[in-house]
Amino acid sequence: NAGVMQNPRHLVRRRGQEARLRCSPMKGHSHVYWYRQLPEEGLKFMVYLQKENIIDESGMPKERFSAEFPKEGPSILRIQQVVRGDSAAYFCASSPSAENSPLHFGNGTRLTVT
Amino acid sequence: AQTVTQSQPEMSVQEAETVTLSCTYDTSESDYYLFWYKQPPSRQMILVIRQEAYKQQNATENRFSVNFQKAAKSFSLKISDSQLGDAAMYFCAYRSAFGSNYQLIWGAGTKLIIKP
Questions:
Q1: Residue A90: closest CA among chain B residues belongs to which residue?
Q2: Smallest CA–CA separation between B110 and chain A, in Å?
Q3: Which tens digit of pLDDT belongs to each residue from A6-37?
Q4: How far apart are CA B98 and CA B2, in angstroms?
């Protein structure tokens, strides 16, 4: 059973470009969560999605950031007009349900904005 | 608001020795969960151990055990018989019993170096 798959593993973008990060949850998991990790910090929650629905986006910046989890295909975290401060590792996790299910994490995408 | 503090940015230990990583937290809640996660160079976050605040007994998973001091709000991780594969960043995390598993509050991490 494949784990949570994130791609790309590394992404380099120039300031002003768009970044698209993909996450395929574990088989059978319909709940997806995105986190951001700055250097020497723990994870910061961004957004929680179920299929076709955003459940909690309280940690996501209101501008330039968006996320989706379509009926078919991976979850996408999209950052428009990237700035240097967006450079970070972005992690996706999935679970079969929202309550006490343990989270399964992917290996993250490291975004570097030049 | 709850906070989690890991005061040791880096620790090193000789292979086969025992090491303890510190974690303190601040909360006004009485019911919550505490976790230790391991992040090896592959970057994947791996759950090491979990403690429920209402349980007196310290959680143990093979060579990993915790020292949970609720009154002191301390949750340290002890790794016995350290192995090279234990080298990683270790994160302590807190979750309210009234929240969901994704609503974790994370410490800044401790980098563990294993000396052969």
A1: B43
A2: 9
A3: 999 999 999 999 999 999 999 989 999 999 99
A4: 13
